Task: structure prediction
Amino acid sequence: MPLARFMELALYHPEHGYYTRADRPIGRAGDFYTSVSVGRLFGELLARRFATWLDRLAGPVQIVEAGAHDGRLAADLLVALDRIAPALRSRTEYWILEPLARRREGQVQTLAAWANRVRWFADWRDIAIPVQGVIFGNELLDAMPVHRWSWDAARGGWRAIGVGLDGDRFTWVPLARPGDGATHPEFPAELADVLPDGYVIETSPAAESWWHAAAKALQRGWLLAIDYGHDTPDRWSPARTGGTFRGYRGHRESPDPLAHPGEQDLTAHVDFGAIRRAGEQAGLQTEVFCSQEQFLTTVLSELSRDAAAMAAWSAPERRQLMTLLHPQHFGRAFRVLVQQR
Ligand SMILES: C[S@@+](CC[C@H](N)C(=O)[O-])C[C@H]1O[C@@H](n2cnc3c(N)ncnc32)[C@H](O)[C@@H]1O
Result:
């Protein structure tokens, strides 16, 4: 089967999928950290950026989150937003896009205190009115299914690689046909002469079409992704010949991402060039593509006018800030794409 189908089942199978199961916390007790699991400060910094944006729009506005997982970021954001921008409270709704019923149950519990301001939707088709405000996801796109390709230097073309069975082990196999909706990777033509045989790369039509749908749903406002990934030039690094598809278990990269489906997280770097094009094709303008460090530093530089707010941060919150900004933690590997209409 195509890798995208394998990922869909391993991550989102209604019973056995890694993200469907309730016993998969993110953070110290889980398999990986995200900026959300570092602490509540990430939510506060996003709330400050969103408040500046929402202030520029009149009338009812929405913050739409996808990939809300256990609802923790939504809670951190709502607490901070009410404190920082009380005037927005009466005209701001928080919407969560959550296709998994079990995840939604957990989010409803976490967000019980905001029951009258939070609404849930399974996907874009359920949202009848256009969004005016902010649509965003933290580490959403890297969790979407990818197709895998390997360069055939002799033929000068791409081979689709999927998942097969060898005895009772899952293993990589060439596919006679790429999976539904999969198209060959687009790449700079001059690379055709130099790409080494077997060079592996992934594509994610699922992430691109999600972003395109989000862009179309946005009538006025900002669409934002925070994730690890590459823009077109560094996507084709000669140093990385085996692709970026990975498994994580117990805070370690798994030696075999195809083993134990449902028991480990599966992920691949986001192709930000393709995501940016998907938004622009839906009429959005790209405002910023930068590191998380640069993005949060801009928020901090505006915040420095509010010295009392920064002085009120506790020692653990100051450490959270260092982790979010530090190039060897979340600062550099994580990128932020902001598009707007
Ligand atoms: C790596 S986790 C990130 C969770 C959280 N945003 C954080 O930063 O801690 C990815 C999340 O995206 C969710 N997800 C994947 N595809 C989605 C989709 N199409 N719509 C909404 N959520 C999705 C998964 O179920 C999972 O909860």
Q: What stands out?
A: The chain has one domain: 14-144+204-237+267-340. The chain has twelve helices and 15 strands. The longest helix spans residues 41-55. Residues 19, 26, 34, 36-37, 66-67, 69, 73, 97-100, 103, 138-140, 143-144, 210 surround S-adenosylmethionine (CB under 6 Å).
